[in-house]
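Problem statement: downstream parser choked on a complex file, so we are re-checking the raw output for the 4-fluoro-L-phenylalanine run. The parser issue turned out to be on our end (a line-ending mismatch), but while we're here, posting the original submission so the record is complete.
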Amino acid sequence: MSSRNIWTHKGTFLLAAVGSAVGLGNLWRFPYLTGENGGGAFILVYAMTIAIVGIPILIAETLIGRASRKSPIMGMKYLTETHGVHKAWRSIGWMGASAAFIILSFYSVIAGWALHYAGLMFSGSLVGADATAISASFDALLASPALLVLYHTIFIAVSGLIVGMGIHKGIESGLRFMMPALFLILLVVLVYALMVGDAGAALSFLFTFNLQDLSLEGWLQAMGQSFFTLSLGMGAIMAYGAYMSSEASLTRTAISIALVDTVIALMAGVAIFALVFGSGLEAGQGPGLMFVTLPIAFAELPGGAFLGGVFFLLVIGAALTSAISLVEPVAAWLVERFGFSRPKAVALMVTCCWALGLVTAFSFNIWAEGTFTQRWFNRSPFDVLEFITNILMPVGGLLIALFAGWALSRDEVLREMATHAGWFRVWQFLVRFVAPTGVAFVFLRTIPQIEGNLLPAVLALLMIGAFSAGRVFLVRS
Ligand code: PFF
């Protein structure tokens, strides 16, 4: 492979992977899940899962990308051929790319909400507004298909523009400018929150570990979140790993990504809860924590309009660096498989993804009721899409762990990891046994949510999965 397709610097993969990892998952989902699940206990389980399941799979996914030096779909084809293992393992590439495609379609719509809020904050239109008015304004946003589509279009177009410019001029240059800027903004927001908010209450909420507070559902959500936040199982890390310098250490890089991602989620958590508690508001507000509760806090704090605007810029930027990692797996595949130019591949990917995003945008208004998904599955179309990714993500992670742990040759893995035999054995044990068990657990979390007509489909999927897994292990072509 030519050096054109390797990151310019040894450390760029780390920057890109952190850009992918840090996003709505850290700033929006982590705080609200922590709030809903009682604080410290949730964080403890989340951190444990990152350490024993997240990091090993992160190493495995990067390793697969770097060993193949291709997009996830073509890379898995190449690795199964060169290792003489069953074709079914290729599903890792296909599932990853499909999950990335679906996630980007709704991620872009939600990131679009932040665009709207940055505008509302900077224009000062929320200053002094009361809770009822702010929550009504969120409802009004969701009720407007035109606004949702407008913001979604802007967000996904900018993501596409960056990726379309290439991995060096677009992704690398963009990240080198955006990542430090985002970190700086987060620091500013944190300092502001500590000054005007209730830091003591925030810290004791986040760091009082009381495991009894945590329901089984909370345990499982913490595990699911550790996957989402590290961008695992969706081909994004694999696609970036394909461009990683052979000299960079897999283990050290993966640990750094996980550490930075966790520290940023915690910083965001402290800032958000200090502001929320400082304004006498509640932590357990669910998904509305960022778009309703936080704006209420900003509305009444000194300088809140400006700082609120800055905060939503941070959300947009962090979501953008994640979104570009979701464009890459499919776009790179279109380039490799069909020989498209990069701009053409990205334009095609982004246009299709934009169209699928309309399904999410309409799910909050014109399709909120009465579509076939409600009739058949009792869920909105958006919920069905999210549900599909909730299945694809852990299954993808599970297969990645098994593939790296069992199917790849020991020599190749040892060469890629270039680490002490002791560390290698720890990692191998984790990806062979611990991570798959953990992931199976996360997967089961979706089972109680399965209603009516979905059950046969999921059971069929499980049976096909078990059957193919059996063949995969037994047949070496
Ligand atoms: N890790 C991102 C976040 O925390 O917001 C979301 C994400 C990005 C998930 C890229 C998956 C992915 F491939």
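For whoever reads this later: The domain at 3-473 is CATH 1.20.1740 (Amino acid/polyamine transporter I).
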